[in-house]
User: What shape does this take?
Amino acid sequence: MMLPKKIKLSLIAFVVFGTTLLSVVNFTDYFKLEIVTVNASELDNWSGKYNLSENNAITNQPLDSLAIALMKKSNIYKVDINYSLPNKIEIKTNHYNPSCFVLDRLSKKIYGLDSDARVVELENSDFSWDNPILTSLTITKPYGFCLDYRVKIVVTELEKLKQQNRDLYCLIDEIDFGNSSVLKISIDGLSYRLKVTHDYLLDDIHKFISFVSRFDPKLEKITLLDLRYDEMIVCSQGKK
Assistant: This one.
């Protein structure tokens, strides 16, 4: 396919501009590396560390070997490196975007869980009540995984729900793992909880929506809706 002359000229101009910009960055003293930060803290005596050089431009630094060297440290699991023009490199370690949260039953501390169900430390900006919190779980160590095998499956199911129906996802307050055979879900605005299985969590939630939409049941005195059975929903009163 032949490109119109105007498009060809535009592409040539873009390539020339990009090449010129890269040359300016690489060969102008103004863009030489002066500052290196790790997790927003300025790194002292960085010249010579990890093969970084103050004589080279920020775009001409060995970032691959820097990332590999950092990943060799036992307490670092993830490295993100960004340029900040004109003369700064920003390094973030162990920065994960939490998919949901988990409350450690022993320490009562809240951690994040990323989309792979890895336990991550939280920054203040990470916490949001729009994400579900998983309870009755024990955290062994940050950046590891929960001992309860169901957690990874549930996080995967929650990720699917977030893509399908984000509003419903945001309404899930808590998923209680206190029982080894069932999960209990608390949903914002409902006085009762949903009893589901971990491997059919999404299907059970859809069953609940269909049931409520179709029959508009009166559930004021109900404390639990058991959704684990194929053709039956069991309503119960008493302890939640």
The radius of gyration is 26 Å. The first strand starts at residue 35 and ends at 38. The first helix runs from residue 5 to 27. Residues 1-25 have pLDDT under 50 and may be disordered.
